[in-house]
Amino acid sequence: MLLSPVTLSVVTPMFNEREAVDHFVARLRPVLDALDEPYEVVAVDDGSSDATVSRLMQLRADWPQLRVVALRRNVGHQTALRAGLRASRGGYVVSIDADLQDPPEVIGEMLEAARREKVDVVYGVRSDRSTDTAFKRQTAGLYYRMMRRLVGPWVSDQAGDFRLMSRAVVDVLNELPEPRPVYRLIVPSLGFASAEVPYVRAERVAGETKYPLSKMIKLTIDSVTSFSAAPLKAATWLGLFSFFACVVLIAVALIRWLAGETVPGWTSLYLAVLLLGGIQLVCVGLLGEYIGRIYAASQGRPAFLVAFDTAALDVATIARPVPGGPITDDVEAVELATPTPTSHQPA
């Protein structure tokens, strides 16, 4: 028994989005139905601790195109997106968040642009971020300017994770071994032909932001260390700076000693130790960040584990043999783990 092919897959990572799920489905389903294309919606639950999964299971009873992929624990937005890309089956794949800050109505424009201009990637570019706070706009602008400088000019300004990709792009992404992918940088670095569709960024429809300052800082660190060795070069320059600073301090000390001046040495000693100690700690921290990533990659542990996928459940139900009779459907046996009450708790 084979699943019917789909033209479009919409991948949506979700973490504690119970308040937003109904609003999201109410906006997304009419848009996809109006496209008149075979589609699926892959909702990836990233270890939610609220009723996100149970509500999705209720909604799919009336929406067969809705597919729920539940992860065993919280692994982060980018890794949950990775799980959704691997599960998707469409010739085109759209990634979008469930908070409705990125409008589902733009999906049709993306699909039309991809076919009209014969490109593999269509980025949703935020033309207006007035609904964001001033701090959010400033830090986002700083992030993209830094990434364009460190990673390359091909990084699209103000393009997040709202994009359409062809199956060729998704297949390449699924083959990458990176344990901490940052898709807003990886996708443009691949060099596939692309186009852009502008849109106005809206306010979050419900719930709280899943990207507070701490996660924004983590995303920046992941972005920099995954795509650039600039921090290591900065550590080298800091080391050179500290060396020349020490040479100057030594020269000053010798000159004063030869001049017969008697000055207390604790101030210069204190400053020198402070300078050297601080720079050394910074350099060790930078080295540790890169070595930690090498160590994590060498372990080869899975980035995520799927508790259940409703597509597999549907196939298993259809292919279930009559008691005492032979299995006639060409379906591989699949062991499905029944999720426990703690399987969706964030780590």
Automatic annotation (TrEMBL):
It is found in: Membrane. It is a multi-pass membrane protein. The keyword Glycosyltransferase applies. Signal peptide: none annotated. The chain crosses the membrane at residues 237-257, 269-291. InterPro entries: Glyco_trans_2-like (IPR001173), Glycosyltransferase_2 (IPR050256), Nucleotide-diphossugar_trans (IPR029044). Its main location: membrane. Gene3D superfamilies: Spore Coat Polysaccharide Biosynthesis Protein SpsA, Chain A. GO terms for molecular function: transferase activity. Keywords: Glycosyltransferase, Membrane, Transferase, Transmembrane, Transmembrane helix. Residues 9-171 form the Glycosyltransferase 2-like domain. Belongs to the glycosyltransferase 2 family. This is Glucosyl transferase. It comes from Paractinoplanes deccanensis.
